[in-house]
């Protein structure tokens, strides 16, 4: 057996399972008009609160039942994935770019620059994140762009703190002294040496942040501070299902399951990528 084969890391089932679920959600979001069996906004009071297909009294074609206005639950979950993933990818990526850049610069150059960034982070952390997001959306108005701005404005500090700490660890490594001895400039060391070694941590945190963004969007939708209440969102469906849970439990349970599995998949996918590609763990 070759040396490479002996040290090859086994397949991570955590990475495979979480990646498979995220792939399903992404496919549903991208191809929602072709996958959804019904118009998610179409109302029919004659079909209100129909149960899922395996329960007595179900209607053919409404696989997960209908809500209190006769709208198809499965179609609304599929279209709700579009909003959840849009917020997850855009807001988390923006927060990652801002926070990681500040964390790398502060952790590497230190001194007065590090002190300024650290004080800004301390001040920002004094605000409760969920309440701060609700306040921001209430001030700048509801809408998808407002949700993205609010999440970005709150969660960049998470990236900044973690990446700064990781950068401080990396700058004490022997390979940094070797790079300095070789005559590399400080910017070259930061970009070519420190950043690649901090990247697995950033990727894991980015994936975790996408899950957090999905939760925050659901919370804002739950309190009607996200997009229009007519548009399907997982948080809005959960809020509606809570009021009729004794008559139509499926309206609450299915979007809640979709939300839980998506957040869990983002978390496990990030950890799986970190375990797979972190040079220290390898």
Task: Give a quick summary of the entry.
This protein is mainly α and 282 residues long. It is built from 11 helices and no strands.
Give keywords.
mainly alpha; disordered N terminus; single chain; MetI-like fold; 282 residues
Describe the structure.
It contains eleven helices and no strands. With 282 residues, it is an all-alpha fold. It has a single domain, classed as MetI-like fold, CATH 1.10.3720. The N terminus is likely disordered.
The second-level CATH architecture is Orthogonal Bundle
Amino- and carboxy-terminal Cα gap: 19 Å
Shape summary: elongated
Largest sheet: none
Q: What is the residue-averaged pLDDT?
A: 83
**CATH hierarchy, class:** Mainly Alpha
Strand content of the residues, in percent?
Answer: under 5%
* CATH topology-level name: MetI-like fold
Query: What is the helix tally?
Result: 11
Summed up, the domain count is: 1
Secondary structure class reads mainly alpha
So, the CATH homologous superfamily? Answer: MetI-like
Q: What is the string of SSEs from the N terminus onward?
A: HHHHHHHHHHH
Radius of gyration: 23 Å
């Amino acid at each position: 057996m070759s040396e490479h084969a002996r040290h090859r890391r086994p397949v991570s089932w955590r990475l495979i399972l979480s990646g498979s679920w995220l792939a399903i959600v992404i496919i549903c979001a991208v191809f929602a008009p072709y996958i959804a069996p019904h118009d998610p906004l179409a109302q029919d009071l004659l079909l209100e609160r129909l149960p899922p297909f395996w329960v007595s009294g179900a209607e053919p074609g409404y696989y997960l039942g209908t809500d209190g206005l006769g709208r198809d639950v499965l179609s609304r979950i599929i279209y709700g994935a579009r909003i959840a993933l849009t917020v997850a990818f855009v807001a988390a990526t923006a927060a990652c770019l801002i926070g990681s850049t500040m964390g790398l610069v502060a952790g590497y150059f230190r001194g007065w620059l590090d002190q300024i960034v650290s004080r800004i982070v301390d001040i920002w952390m004094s605000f409760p994140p969920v309440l701060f997001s609700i306040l921001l959306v209430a001030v700048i108005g509801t809408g998808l762009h407002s949700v993205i701005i609010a999440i970005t404005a709150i969660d960049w500090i998470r990236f900044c703190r973690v990446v700064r700490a990781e950068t401080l660890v990396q700058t004490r490594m022997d390979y940094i002294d070797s790079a300095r001895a070789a005559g590399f400039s400080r910017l070259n060391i930061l970009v070519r040496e420190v950043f690649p070694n901090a990247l697995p941590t950033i990727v894991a945190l980015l994936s975790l942040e996408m899950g957090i963004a999905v939760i925050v969007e659901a919370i804002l939708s739950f309190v009607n501070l996200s997009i229009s209440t007519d548009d399907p969102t997982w948080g809005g469906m959960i809020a509606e299902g809570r009021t009729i849970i004794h008559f139509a439990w499926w309206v609450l349970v299915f979007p809640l399951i979709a939300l839980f599995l998506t957040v869990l998949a983002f978390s496990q996918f990030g950890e799986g990528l970190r375990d797979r590609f972190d040079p220290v763990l390898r």
